[in-house]
Amino acid sequence: MPFRFEFDDPENTDRVLLHEFIRQLRVLLINLIYETGYTAPGLGFIAGTREQLEILWRETEPEFDRVNIAIDRVETRNLESVGLAKSALRAKLNILQLFAQRFRNAADAARNADVGGIGLIRRMVRLLSQLLGVINTILGSLAKALGKGEAIKELKDMLEHAIETEEVIDD
After folding, report:
1. Considering the entire predicted model, what is its pTM?
2. What residues are paired with 24 via a beta bridge?
3. d(CA 101, CA 39)
4. Helix 117-146 and helix 150-162: axis angle, to 10°?
């Protein structure tokens, strides 16, 4: 489960960290769309939305490559102007990493519980929403700096709207 970053590695420049963010985001979105039950036990999609998310994924996936190319080409001052350079980038990715760890812990607890309990599932939904909110902030900054990535942000938004607990899906 993403997100983990090696901040102490001197080879991890701002651009390397941004590429790693994009790589790990791609993994997270694939896991949520195609393996929701394992990635987030007790979560699913509102009826009829999974197929639409799969269509959106197929249409959006090439944008990840375009964003990676743009990361290599963008001027550093553009990244700095939106807080995606130096200590500001590391602070944002560190916050993302912390939220991801909290979500992983909740998902592990739900996966390992004899009875998942709606309380665990609701906590996981809240933590996933917070995690996706942090991702949204970074994606918004990237889109502004690069002029690319808005489609990824929109996919993430649609996925967030479509996720629901099994309790609601089964009603």
Report:
1. 0.90
2. none
3. 13
4. 170
| Three-class secondary structure assignment of the chain | CCCCCCCCCCCCCHHHHHHHHHHHHHHHHHHHHHCHHHHCCCEEECCCHHHHHHHHHHHHHHHHHHHHHHHHHCCHHHHHHCCCCHHHHHHHHHHHHHHHHHHHHHHHHHHHCCCCHHHHHHHHHHHHHHHHHHHHHHHHHHHHHHCCCHHHHHHHHHHHHHEEEHHHHCC
Burial class of residue 48 (count of CB atoms within 10 Å of its CB; 0-12, 13-18, 19+) = exposed
In the numeric block, which tokens belong to residue 156? Answer: 């993430």
Show the tokens assigned to 36.
Answer: 């929701």
Per-residue pLDDT of the chain (171 residues; tens, 9 = 90+): 789 999 999 999 999 999 999 999 999 999 999 887 766 777 778 888 999 999 999 999 999 999 999 999 999 999 999 999 999 999 999 999 999 999 998 888 877 765 556 777 778 888 999 999 999 999 999 999 999 999 999 999 999 999 876 544 433
14 contacts 137 by C-beta, under 8 angstroms: no
